[in-house]
Structure prediction request, 404 residues.
Amino acid sequence: MTDMKQPESQRFERKRFENKETDGKRVAVIGGGVIGCLTALYLHELGANPIVLEKGVAGQQSSWAGAGILCPIHPWLYPDSFTHLIDASLALYPAMNEMLLEKTGMSMQWHKSGLLIPLFEDDRIHHSDDALAWSKRFGWHVEQLDSAQTQAHENSISEQVSGSLLWPEVGQVRNPRLLAAVKKALELVNVPIRQHAEVVGLGENEQGDINAVMLAGGEKIETDAVLLAAGSWSGELAKQIGLELPVEPVKGQIVLLKDEPGIINHIIKHDDVYMVPRSDGHILVGASMERVGFRQGTTDTVIDSLLDATYRIAPGLKSAEIINQWMGFRPGSPDGMPYLGPVEGRKGLWVASGHYRNGVALAPGTADLMSRMIMGETPAMDLSDFRVERPVVERSRVGFPKTA
Ligand SMILES: Cc1cc2nc3c(=O)[nH]c(=O)nc-3n(C[C@H](O)[C@H](O)[C@H](O)COP(=O)(O)OP(=O)(O)OC[C@H]3O[C@@H](n4cnc5c(N)ncnc54)[C@H](O)[C@@H]3O)c2cc1C
Prediction:
């Protein structure tokens, strides 16, 4: 499987703001996940002077653990503004991929494997009509396959399948490789990533403008702006600095299978499980949705239920070897949407967090929008649905799961 090339016209081009006050602007980015690291890289491209502060090791949390599917799970359940944000972000993937490959020589294995939703008589979730209407409205190419066509595409799928929906253009990346490439790109342009540097507070001047971050251990780093991109920990840290941000961890467990390459070829999504085939025969099976705080570790019950669901839909995978399992904490938000933008009344403080199930798909869009806003540009799209001060939604079809 080769990495895709993008047309010349979409090449990565981010103009430095020359002769502007913002050139050399110091930005402290809190959090070394995909959101923090990529935004730091994009800030550097625009002439800023960012530093990434990471309390552990950069790129080891949610951004490492995720499945790398470049399409939301059931995007038709979200408001239209979310699809606009996803579309804008996915449109930047070719340029980001090319830029990282050119700069670092490292591939994130971005490719279009397609996404297939098989349909069975006893499906728990019946989304076909909404899915088709959404695809038509937003121009996502979808094909309706009958049972024979579905089996021709994926012969591991159960013979009970009555048909399927196929989005051939949906892509995927390998998260650890994406993170490795972004970290390498930062290193090559001398943007520091300070690891084991936990931010515990902010400093402000007499006008209340943010002008510093405080690290555990007492060190103070002076800065012109701060970006809160601390993933699942953003809600806790926000509280420490007097800000209400309802971002909470939603744990996801994953099990890794290995078989011959090509045993499945598309991302397969069904009810509560998905399978993501990598080009070397690894198949990632995910993922639970658990609201259990920061409780670490995988559990046999969850892993077994993921495997049971997999074997029911795709009995052909029973022969695959089970080789690993892990978990990660998604930065959840009550409405399933990220918080993007400035914090009212706290000049110099910005938030990019709460990306929940979609932080990898939304990474280039977030990094592009946030870096431009921090450098003084007005965003090219309406971000009011993502503002930090939006009301908390009590019930949403895509927000926090109800139970553990
Ligand atoms: C099982 C699973 C499957 C997923 N599948 C997909 C998918 O298929 N597609 C998709 O798009 N998304 C997926 N996601 C979601 C995606 O991984 C996240 O939305 C995204 O990684 C969030 O990135 P982040 O940088 O905000 O958070 P993180 O990667 O968690 O990074 C936040 C960083 O901030 C650091 N930090 C926290 N507090 C502090 C502090 N006080 N000081 C300094 N540093 C701090 C943390 O140590 C961490 O390294 C999945 C997630 C999981 C867990």
Observations:
- Residues 1-12 have pLDDT under 50 and may be disordered.
- The domain at 115-169+249-332 is CATH 3.30.9.10 (D-Amino Acid Oxidase; Chain A, domain 2).
